[in-house]
Amino acid sequence: DRKFPYKAYMTAIRLDGVSKVFDGEHLAVDELSLEIGDGEFMVLLGPSGCGKTTLLRMIAGLERVTSGEVWFGRTRGTDLAPRERGVAMVFQTGALYPNRTVQENIMFPLQIAGKDDAEAGSTAVGLAQILSIESVLDRMPWTLSGGQRQRVAIGRALVRRPKVFLLDEPLSNLDATMRTELRQEIGAMTRDLNVTTLYVTHDQVEALTLANRIAVMRDGRIEDVGTPTQVYNDPATAFVAGFLGTPRINLMSATVNVTAHHRVRLEFGSQSIGLDPTDRRSLILRHHHGAPVIVGARSNAFSLITTQDAPNQLTGTIRAFEFHGQQSIAFVQCGIEIVDPDRIGRPRPAHASPLAEPTPSLLGRFRRRIGLGAAP
Ligand code: ATP
What we know:
Elements (H helix, E strand, L loop, with lengths): L10 E12 L3 E12 L3 E5 L6 H9 L6 E6 L2 E2 L10 E4 L11 H11 L4 H14 L15 H13 L5 E5 L7 H18 L2 E6 L2 H7 L2 E6 L2 E6 L1 H6 L4 H6 L6 E9 L5 E5 L2 E4 L5 H6 L6 E6 L19 E7 L4 E6 L32 H4 L7
Parallel strand pairs: 3-8, 3-9, 6-7, 7-8
Antiparallel strand pairs: 1-2, 1-4, 4-5, 9-10, 11-12, 11-14, 12-13, 15-16
The chain binds adenosine-5'-triphosphate.
């Protein structure tokens, strides 16, 4: 259910077992493989230090790969110089030429490419209109707001019509309103230009709203790739489940109890709930009496009730109640063991047997996991 949705010949970027080792010992990217389709908007999402920027820089040619291959379509790009790759990149703080006006900044890549000033100038003006910065074309970079600077940086990156557009947290230095506005514009522009885009962020709202597909990265590897709804509703691992969604998903330790009538109950210490017998997870779990599992449930799967004997009820004490405007969040202590997704499912050392220590799995992914008895 996570098949590459683009035809093979449409692949714009293919990473084939790409690794990056810094200083001979620090593994920043670990044999990572990923395909990004032609015209696709892929978001690379993950916590700080997981290797997102390093991966982007290897695609741009700013960092050499230690091993593995980078392909652009059918062209092997691993050893190409940055300017031979047809790639444009925008960083967290758009680095502009300080001594050039906005228009000159945007025109410059075209001039280097040999276009005459008139043509370069009119292309820059057209792009400035799309980016809503035509009123500042004659200004110098230091007079611009953060949002305007980023727009200029985006304009300068796109002016040569790159095949591949790489953005590294381009909105992280902007205030909330500007971030939303520019986010929408980036989405619209990349769609209009049909440019293949790889967008790095650790902001899940940016990921969910912009992406055709999201790749969730952790410790130099990809843990999950899929459309926003796939990754949100059917995450591959507990870490991915915990990374996406606010408030954070509840990940609860449980034990599978299969009753005499093949009904599956999930036991949380002294409390339990029954699964619908037709639920796909129920059909799998009924062969795994006694198995430890992690049950993932987002807060909107619960409702607060005051009756005593409703089916599938967990009993607890409200510890806090927060008003968030659109929603309110109740924090309820139910005496259930809560699992920290950052602490489980880290890649197992190569020598460990997958059956040595059966670690619980995320309920939603049992199809794949339980047959192995392995960690998520
Ligand atoms: P952030 O979201 O904080 O920018 P990231 O996911 O982009 O993080 P990277 O910047 O790619 O992560 O870094 C991945 C790992 O590689 C980190 O542990 C980092 O310290 C290390 N690293 C990155 N660049 C170098 C370098 N030039 N030399 C040594 N180590 C580096």
